[in-house]
Amino acid sequence: MSDMRFGSQAGASNMCGVTLMNTPVGRVVADAMGAKEGVTLVEYPSMIRVDGTRLLEFDYDELTEALGEPFDGSIFEEISSTHYGRMVHLDDRTLLFANPEDAAEYIGFDLLAHG
């Protein structure tokens, strides 16, 4: 007997995401991200999944304002556990891309040279 709750999809989903710890800081970050267009939150007792279409941008200035205290890449690393998509850390933001080609300019990948 087949269980229809589980399955697979061979095509690209155009989605990317990260799992945040459900802590006071993680909660504020999730809420700030969930207010953005194309971003959905799924809450579990100890974690919050943040999923986005095409691109997730964790802008440190926006998150600093939402938290009322400094937010940077080290804090992002502390509150995140897993992710899917191509992650790029910059000085002022962390980006997650659903499609690696969209991250080409950040990771030094020349799309023309590689076909």
TrEMBL record:
Stretches that traverse the bilayer: none
UniProt GO MF annotations: monooxygenase activity
Pfam families documented for this protein: MmoB_DmpM (PF02406)
InterPro entries assigned to the protein according to its UniProt record, in alphabetical order: MOase_MmoB_DmpM, mOase_MmoB_DmpM_sf
Sorted UniProt keywords: Monooxygenase, Oxidoreductase
Domain of life: Bacteria
Family to which the UniProt record says this protein belongs: Belongs to the TmoD/XamoD family.
NCBIfam families documented for this protein: PropMonoxMimD (NF045941)
Protein name (Swiss-Prot/TrEMBL): Monooxygenase
